[in-house]
Design goal:
This protein is of the alpha+beta class and about 150 residues long. It has one domain: Roll (Thiol Ester Dehydrase, Chain A). Helix content is about 20%, strand content about 40%.
């Protein structure tokens, strides 16, 4: 069931996702990448690209990973679990991205393995003009999250 998501209701802090626009739990999700020109991101960008303002591909890939993980965590059996990057295939970056561009992110869950803790999904990022900024296939392993101790 497709439903818009109020990103203020997401329980965990997302470092790269600004706003979740659509969510079909366990199937697909659409979001906006946060503005990586903010000072909090400049350390990573400045170290990697000191003479030009380009967004490192790993930041976009990490945002796609987070969105796919959020989509799966909406399912009851994955709540409280943490998604760990287990592999990236077919990663392509056809166009450069500059900090400040608000990329639209899309993920589509392709396999939810009931017999294991692995999940695969396809991810894409689009520039505001609709051009493809990145695409990839991502493998995620879900593990139990940290236990909270009672005080």
């Amino acid at each position: 069931m497709l439903r818009p998501v109020d990103s203020t209701t997401v329980e965990r802090p997302d470092r790269w996702i600004k706003q979740v626009l659509e969510m079909e739990p366990g199937k697909r999700a659409v979001a906006i990448l946060d503005d990586i020109s903010k000072p909090v991101y400049q350390t990573a960008i400045g170290v990697l690209f000191p003479s030009s303002m380009l967004a490192p591909g790993f930041l976009i890939a990490e945002a796609i990973l987070e969105l796919g993980t959020l989509c799966v965590q909406e399912l009851e059996e994955y709540r409280g679990k943490v998604g760990l990057l287990a592999g990236v295939d077919k990663l392509r970056i056809p166009e450069e991205t500059k900090p400040g561009e608000l990329l639209k992110l899309e993920t589509e869950i392709t396999h939810l393995y009931s017999h294991s803790s692995f999940t695969t999904f396809k991810g894409r990022a689009f520039h505001p003009n609709g051009g493809l900024a990145m695409r990839s296939e991502i493998l995620v392993k879900f593990v139990n999250g940290p236990k909270q101790e009672l005080s």
